[in-house]
Amino acid sequence: MDWNVIELDNGITLVELIGRMDVPGALKADPAFAQIAGEATRVIVDLGRLEFLASLGIRTLVTTSKTLRAKDGNLVVLSPQPNVEQVLRSSGIDTIIPIAKDRAEAESSVLA
Amino acid sequence: MSAARHSASFPGTIEGATDASVWLRDVSAREDLASDLTFALELCLEELFTNVVRHGGSGQWDEAVRSDLPNPLQVAVTVVAERDLVFLVIEDNGLPFDVTTAPARPIEAPLEEVTPGGLGLQLVRSFSRDLSYEAVPGGNRVRLSFERPQMEGTKAVG
């Protein structure tokens, strides 16, 4: 599990997740997301290179999203692979965290 | 048609759950299972295994109950690969827990009210073909089945 955090010019924080958000992956990423939730406001999480996601990782995304919303921020996920997208939709998380298909859609959604 | 059977046992801990995932991916590679099926197997294993870790031996139970617990918590995982179906059987020696009657909750509430527990079982039901539970002496047995797409041609993802 690895990630890159990129500050875009328009005040958006782009977090690129790489690898597997399984048990060890989620445990490793949790502190980083806690820091991002504390420092950022509008966050796009790019899931294009995320190969695995389960409920532990969903919890991380939901917790981060709640913290951001509490300070009028927002979190959007971008271009999940099909299996990961099915996890998001089966769990119903897509009803509370928007799934964007491309970067432009993600940026307009997170700034809304 | 003979079925290939793989079994391993793991401690009922977070580390055990991680080791079980690694083992499952190895079995999947040896059986040449499709990547979507491997994803579904691994997802269900992780959700059910962490469920055992969470509920099988501690947490909501008081000390009087806990003193009767089998110790240590163990989780046995079996994969049976047939031509058209793959079975995943997860047995533990923890407290009785019927996953087929436990509430599975997709997220429906507004984000501010969401506490994402119960999502795991929702995912297990969504990614498996069927799910059954059996209380066995001293523990629990959960059996899942999955359709095994034939390797010729690509599988449509719905």
Describe the overall structure.
The complex is a heterodimer of chains A (112) and B (158). Chain A has 112 residues and is an alpha/beta fold. In chain A, 46% of the residues lie in helices and 31% in strands. Chain A has one domain: STAS domain (Transcription Regulator spoIIAA, 2-Layer Sandwich), CATH 3.30.750.24. Chain A has four helices and five strands. Chain A has a five-stranded mixed β-sheet with strand order 1-2-3-4-5, with helices on both faces. In chain A, helix 1 (23-39) runs parallel beside helix 2. The longest helix of chain A is centred in the N-terminal third of the chain and has 17 residues, at 23-39. Chain A is globular, with a radius of gyration of 12 Å. Chain B has four helices and five strands. In chain B, strand 4 (130-136) and strand 5 form a beta hairpin. Chain B has a single domain, classed as Histidine kinase-like ATPase, C-terminal domain (Heat Shock Protein 90), CATH 3.30.565. Chain B starts with a strand and ends in an 11-residue tail after the last strand. Mean pLDDT of chain B is 84; it is low at 59-67. In chain B, helix 1 runs antiparallel to helix 2 (35-55) and helix 2 (35-55) runs antiparallel to helix 4 (119-127). Chain B has a five-stranded antiparallel β-sheet with strand order 1-2-3-5-4, with helices on one face.
What are the salient characteristics of this protein?
heterodimer, A: Transcription Regulator spoIIAA, five-stranded mixed sheet, 5 strands, B: 158 residues, Heat Shock Protein 90, five-stranded antiparallel sheet, 4 helices, globular
Fourth CATH level, the homologous superfamily of chain B: Histidine kinase-like ATPase, C-terminal domain
What is the H/E order of chain B? EHHHEEHEE
CATH architecture of chain B: 2-Layer Sandwich
- What is the overall number of helices of chain B? 4
Summarize the biggest pleated sheet of chain A: 5 strands, mixed
**Rg on CA atoms of chain B, Å:** 16 Å
How many helices of chain A? 4
Distance between the termini of chain B: 29 Å
Report the helical percentage of chain B.
Answer: 25-40%
